[in-house]
Amino acid sequence: MLENEVVYITGASSGIGFATAELCLKKGATVIITGRNKNNLDKANKNLLKISSKVVKHNIDVSLESEITDSLKDVYKSFGKIDALVNNAPSIHTGKIIDLDLAAWRTNFKANLDAVFLTTKTVLPWMQNSKKGAIVNVASVVGLKGVAYMSAYGAAKAGLINFTKATAIEAAPHVRVNCVIPGAVLTPATERAIPNEDLMKATINTIPMKRIADPVEVAHPITFLLSSDASFITGASLIVDGGKTADLNAGN
């Protein structure tokens, strides 16, 4: 349970972040949701209020340092604590390595890695002072395997996986830091990346479980890692990909 906990979730307007917010509210937490698109955030907030009144929305761009740090400080001032942090906000800019300019390359790092550094740097002292806290970073299987046209995104997510481990060591013994590594999940971002039925079927065929995950199937592992049920788990990388990265896929 997350009764009376204060949980801060980036990128919670839809997909994994929204599903995680739903679960945390159902478990009794106060949940701060963030999103860059005001309309999407307002819609998410309206739907979450049907579950619990303990939801707060912050319309921010996590790639902007002042916005993310001011948001976190405002939450800390209001509630006196932040018990849990979920770094979920994604940013994907694809392209061939030879075609990417440095600005496009860096775009992938702003939300996927730089923002995580900023949120962690901000909340960790508060958690350490209270001798309590949990952070879950949402990476991607693209951070584990090479994927054409996604070199920058993959590099950022690989960095996030390593950053999680380093943070777990520095945050111990009272604050736990873990990473969830999803495969294909049915989110708006995935629908944009896989725009037609044939491509979707081809993607599904490469997954041993022969389907794409529902966002709640990633949200459950995230909320588990936030909870006291995971009290001796830190520095872990939990792959949630339907067996995709377990398969050598040699000749079939």
Automatic annotation (TrEMBL):
InterPro entries, per the entry: NAD(P)-bd_dom_sf (IPR036291), Sc_DH/Rdtase_CS (IPR020904), SDR (IPR050259), SDR_fam (IPR002347)
Listed GO biological process terms: monocarboxylic acid metabolic process
Similarity field: Belongs to the short-chain dehydrogenases/reductases (SDR) family.
Protein name in the entry: SDR family NAD(P)-dependent oxidoreductase
